[in-house]
Amino acid sequence: MTETYDAVIAGAGPAGGQCARDLAARGYDVVVLETESEDVFPKTSNKSTAGTFPSTMASFGIPDEVVMNFTDSVVIESPNDHYRTDQPGAVLEFADYKKWLVAESEVDGAEYRFDARATRPIVEDGDVVGVTYNGSEEVRAEVVVDATGPGAPLAKALDVTDLQRDRQAIGIEYELEGIEIDHPDFADLTGAMMLRLDHDLAPGGYSWIFHTGGSEAKVGLCYIQNDRYREQSREGFVIDDYLEYWLDRDPRFAEADRLEGKQHRGSAHIQPPGKMTTDSFIAIGDTVPTVDPLWGEGIDKCMRSGRAAAITIDRCLSRATPDTSASETAIYNQLWRDTVAPKVRARLLMTELLYLAGNDRYDRLMADLRRLDSETLAAANSANLRGILSLLHVDDADLLRRFARERIAEHSEALPDAADLPAPVARVVGRLSSLR
């Protein structure tokens, strides 16, 4: 007899694990299908730099035991300058963090099936009723959740996702020891998370050094495979070549060695979400996608995504007559926009403008960041129009004109709807449209 649960979740990452944790805590029968074997989990899915902030740690009760290093500042580097701001954070040991999520949800009754690769949804009479995994095995549930990331086998089969290749960001990271964390030619990165804007190292993206203690750090880079990358890229280079290129040239790594078995790579999509739900089905985490487009932060966004899905499922199933119709699961869409990524479209536009700028503009940006007060910088980071304008100069006009032309001519479908934005931003979008 095929087993039936309240919810079946495909994927035991930050989104799937948190969704299972919240549902199990509410007393629901939950099963999670995870592709990897239990004895190696998460060997191949250990893909996150895992930098996060106190708000995430507190909101989700993440314990200190899964933290590699607590940091106290964020440094942004350009090719010839840097900016530092006081910002407490934590660099997680991602594998330990994922195991903790599994254990936490198991305590409340969630079931995990490892070596269980979700292959397709089970659809009967137009309704999603379960998941087929490992080719022929089945599990049924009132609600199915796809938390598998960009692979998205369930969401794709249901036409609930449209991940675009030219919006795919790919990344690679090594864990190194023997780094000169406080090199005289660079900012002191002791207890810091550093992000570097430099097209020479990461065309159309950024690189990073996250200090994990002593002379060790997570070091990597990522970029979006779009026109900006193609303009700035080196012929014949793949992402591994860019990281080796940086390691060979940056004096901070002159005596550094790679830690054995500590190489991570992964991908996510930097684009606005489209359809995320249908009857008895919700797509969460990087299946949507969910990663912050500007700085790549994913743990907080994915966990919030999983929590929003759990809230939606609870609402659907806690009624006297459970209702998992598309109109009810669509509540997740509003929760996602309100609590997971409330300004995602504006931040997407900021991301495209940032990566359109050249290295010389990045150097100037560091000076801009230093001259502005913390309130204005916070406004800019949250996609507030006045905050963004404070970072612009008269001689950025050519950059802005090019940006406007590209948005209208090539990606006009991604421009925000005026109704989704504050009135001042809506006026700017209208102005861009008039440039046709």
TrEMBL record:
One protein family per Pfam: FAD_binding_3
Assigned keywords, A-Z: Oxidoreductase
Domain FAD-binding: from-to ranges: 5-167
Molecular functions (GO terms): oxidoreductase activity
InterPro entries: Dggglyphlred_Halo, FAD-bd, FAD/NAD-bd_sf, Geranylgeranyl_reductase
Enzyme Commission designation: 1.3.7.11
Tree of life domain: Archaea
PANTHER family per UniProt: DIGERANYLGERANYLGLYCEROPHOSPHOLIPID REDUCTASE (PTHR42685:SF18), GERANYLGERANYL DIPHOSPHATE REDUCTASE (PTHR42685)
NCBIfam families (alphabetical): Dggglyphlred_Halo
Protein name: Digeranylgeranylglycerophospholipid reductase
Protein species of origin: Saliphagus infecundisoli
